[in-house]
Design a protein that fits this description.
Chain lengths: 291, 164
């Protein structure tokens, strides 16, 4: 059974931030609860005060801003999966949302909660890093924008301060002649490995590429060695296989119950090849910017 | 009970009937339904939202009652397997499950049927592939999935014929 707690219903982000500041470590943000409630029930964490962000209006909104999509922190995976705005502007994000856990978790779990919990075995952050998303953190009296790749600090750790609220995630449009893709492998509810790619082509060559890997290390992260080696190369099978191999070799990996380090490096190489092929094929489509 | 945390009065609708209750915020929906209301259709099984045996509908959406606070149901509609049929008649999905013998031990059946019902709300006559995709994450350890999928497809087909 859960230990006793109170639920607070703030009506603004500033009020939520003040509640967190006032109650300090005794308070936690409560969004979908798909991570928080089980850990509290199992006694892995205990809080006397839950600050229910669902009480703050409009935090779940998804809006298109030009070619960019802004996803409110409280948008559920299910809402993202089915959002026409996301489908038109960031279709790979919709695909990733559709693969999260199961229907019940997707109905309740939120993107903001997923990111802030920072469970390493997770999909959405990997794609958001590849697509150069940014995150708005707000507190009473101030806000800051953080790049998705700078948001994570380690296992279950992010740069969010205790009294900060994740308000939204901006996913910018891909430049022209670009494509994105996400490939993952999952035996259980949570993924074993996931690789996201966003690539831009110029003529027949790669002009820029972002490769992000998740689930195999302490946090989702880019793989700069693989990215740098691919820029300027053609998009032939050999170049892409080399980039995939370099991704598997240089990514930070921790062996755990999902697999040994060697196994994970192998899986990442396979997934990177798949994601690179798909992203390049999408980028090479003749009809302007495609995801 | 900790006296320093006040209980809360909540009003909700369970299977079409209004329910008022005094709850502690920490009370889980599954305990509330099973222990307070005697609705034991939703089962406690994995307890970590993986298996689907505790599935109930909250405003028509499938949730895991094992990890949902009863507090979340305030002002909302809860549907359990006990409330799916109407006027003493089985829901078409329940009839189809019986006819197709889509039940072995029966432990997963309430969650299967409620989850399938949310699919039929969206797609009146789904294909086997659509049913399988929708039921992913609702586990049957007797491995009776084929019968279950056939039953849902059949219920959808019959519903569409009846509506046509």
């Amino acid at each position: 059974m859960l230990r006793p707690f109170e639920v607070h219903e703030p009506s603004t982000v500033a009020e939520a931030s003040r509640l967190l500041g006032h109650h300090g470590e005794d308070a936690a943000v409560y969004a979908g609860g798909t991570e928080l409630i089980p850990v509290m029930r199992d006694g892995l964490a205990s809080y006397r005060h839950l600050v229910n962000l669902k009480a703050v209006p409009a935090l779940d909104r998804i809006t298109g801003e030009g070619d960019m999509v802004r996803v409110g922190a409280l948008a559920t995976h299910r809402t993202i999966e089915r959002s026409p705005v996301v489908g038109a502007r960031a279709p790979v994000l919709a695909q990733v949302a559709a693969g999260v856990a199961n229907l019940r978790v997707r109905n309740v779990g939120t993107l903001g909660g997923n990111l802030c919990f920072a469970e390493p075995h997770s999909d959405p952050a990997v794609l958001l890093i590849a697509q150069n998303a940014s995150i708005l953190l707000a507190r009473d009296g101030g806000e800051r924008r953080v790049n998705a790749e700078a948001f994570f600090e380690g296992i279950l750790r992010t740069v969010r301060r205790h009294d900060e609220i994740l308000v939204w995630v901006d996913v910018p449009a891909l430049p022209p002649h670009s494509g994105a893709a996400y490939a993952r492998f999952a035996l259980h509810e949570r993924p074993t490995a996931g690789v996201a790619v966003a690539v831009t082509l110029d003529g027949g060559a790669v002009s820029s590429v972002r490769i992000a890997v998740g689930s195999v290390g302490p946090m989702p992260a880019r793989v700069p060695e693989a990215e740098e080696a691919l820029v300027g190369c053609g998009t032939d099978a050999r170049a892409l296989r080399q980039a995939a191999a370099r991704t598997g070799q240089t990514v930070e990996v921790l062996g755990d119950l999902y697999g040994s380090e060697d196994y994970k490096r192998h899986i990442v190489t396979v997934l990177a090849a798949k994601a690179l092929d798909q992203a390049v094929a999408r980028a090479a489509r003749p009809t302007g910017p495609e995801h | 009970m900790d006296a320093s945390v006040p209980s809360r009065h909540i009003a909700l609708t369970v299977n079409g009937r209004p329910v008022d209750a005094l709850i502690e915020p920490r009370e889980l929906l599954l305990d509330f339904l099973r222990d307070r209301l005697g609705l034991i259709g939703a089962k406690r099984s994995c307890d970590v939202q993986v298996c689907g045996a505790c599935t109930v509908l909250l405003d028509g959406q499938a949730v895991s009652a094992c990890c949902t606070l009863a507090y979340e149901a305030r002002g909302r509609q809860v549907t359990t397997i006990e409330g799916l049929g109407a006027d003493g008649r089985l829901h078409p999905l329940q009839e189809a499950f019986a006819e197709h013998a889509a039940v072995q031990c029966g432990f997963c059946t309430p969650g299967m049927i409620l989850t399938a019902a949310t699919l039929l709300q969206e797609v009146s006559s789904p294909t086997a592939a659509q049913v399988a995709a929708h039921l992913r994450g609702t586990l049957c350890r007797c491995t009776g999935y084929w019968k279950i999928i056939e039953a849902v497809v059949d219920a959808g087909r019959r519903g569409q014929e009846a509506g046509a």
